[in-house]
Every structure is written in structure tokens, then in C-alpha cells.
Amino acid sequence: MSEPGPPSATLSPPLLRVEHVVKRFGGVRAVDDASFAVERGSITALIGPNGAGKTTLFNVVTGFQHGDGGTVVYDGRAILGRPPWAIARCGLVRTFQITKALAAMPVIDNMTLAAPHQPGEHIATLLVRPRATRRREHEIEARAGELLETFGLAAKRDDYAGTLSGGQRKLLELARVLMAEPRMVLLDEPMAGVNPTLGGKLLEHVHALRERDGTTFLLIEHDMEVVMGHSDRVVCMAQGAVIAEGAPEAVRNDPRVIDAYLGGGSA
């Protein structure tokens, strides 16, 4: 597996800033005044015991749930409260803990549906500019084929997505979000339910995308070997709040982090 490299020195502001975000469910604060930043071109891990609020925070950041307070700034734009499709168009996309492959559709169709700027979606464009529509469709299908080849899924191109293994679905989901040409990807437990071989390939793709395209990653992960070996920076949450952040080794040895895991019974 590839080793992480420190993000390039830069004076530019963080790509993502989460500031004092709150999300309530009744009287429970699932996210409690959470604040942290993600540097451009970095791989940042978000860790914490089960129930710490990590996935809820992802949902708020990406617009799948409405926050009750705070600010989320992506690339200089305030995005808290915007719908998921609008956030994705800004270049911020995510995967899910339970993959969202369209099981009854072929793998290639799962890929092409995620591409932006599809003129064929509009009847007027189909009638007025049929050649341009066909040309764009060919471009999208070619891009999808390239990504499937890169992720080792080309042989599954015409198979129904529901026939893929759990690890292959994780790879498909990452390949699919790349169809949206993102600048930042949020990965929700990418290693969960994935065998070590496919997990290693997924991590290799993450590093390759960071090195080649400068893609920024924020991932929720429980596997501490993955966190320590593949992230530049770690943010730890417990009971909805950020309790520590910094270099992986420093966070792992932080007494507050140790207490959160051992005290929560999720070490």
C-alpha cells in the first residue's frame, strides 16, 4: 500500500472549513459545536467511537440533513443548507457507509448517470442539437469506460450492479463519484466489509488521485492501521464534539482520544 505524503506547503486557505456545526435530534445533539478544517490536497481521517456523530456530520456537510447551527465553507462558499445536488456541482461529493449502487441497472449505466452536463436530459436540446447530444453521450461513456478499466471493473461493465461483491461495489461507488469530476471526496467507512486485497486497491486509488489530480479526501474510518498509515491529519469526535485533531501519532496518543475509545467500549 502507498504511504501518505505530507500535503504541499501552501498559503491558500483550507478547502473545507466546518465551524461550530450543530445537529439536533429532539433533545440529543448528534453534532455538538463541531469545528475543524481540511487542507487542500490532503487525506484527512475522521475517527471516533460508534455514535460519535461522524456520519451525521457528513450528512450535514453534504446537504443530506439540515444543520441546526454553524457554518460550512467549501472553497470559499458557504454551503450549509444547500441541497446535495448543488453541493456536488461545486465539486464536493461523497460515498456512503452502505453503498448506493443501483442494483437493477448495469455497471456502465451506474457510471454514466453520475456525469454532469448531460444535454440529453432536456427534450429541447435533443430536438435542436441532436449531434451535440450524441457527442456528449459518447464522451461520457468513454470516460466511464476508462474509470472502470482503472478500477479493475471493465469486465463487469454490462453486469447488473447488484451482482458485484461488497468490495467491488465500494470500488464502483468511488469510480462513480469521479464521474462528477470532484475536487473533494468524503468517504464513509470505505474499508467496511471489504476484503484486504480490494481494500488495498481502493487505498491505492485514493493516493493516486491525490498525487495525480490533487483530489482532497476526508474519510471516516475505524481501522486504525489504515488511519495511521494513510492519512496526513486526523480529527477525532466523541459525543458529537471534536475532541482532538492533528498528526496521526499525536492524536492516537492523546489522552482524550484514548479515554473516548476505552470509555465508550469501542477501542
From TrEMBL:
One of its GO terms (molecular function) is ATP binding. Residues 16-264 form the ABC transporter domain. Keywords: ATP-binding, Nucleotide-binding, Transport. The keyword ATP-binding applies. The keyword Transferase does not apply. PROSITE patterns: ABC_TRANSPORTER_1, ABC_TRANSPORTER_2. It holds the Pfam family BCA_ABC_TP_C. It comes from the Bacteria. InterPro entries: AAA+_ATPase, ABC_AA/LPS_Transport, ABC_transporter-like_ATP-bd, ABC_transporter-like_CS, BCA_ABC_TP_C, P-loop_NTPase. This is ABC transporter ATP-binding protein.
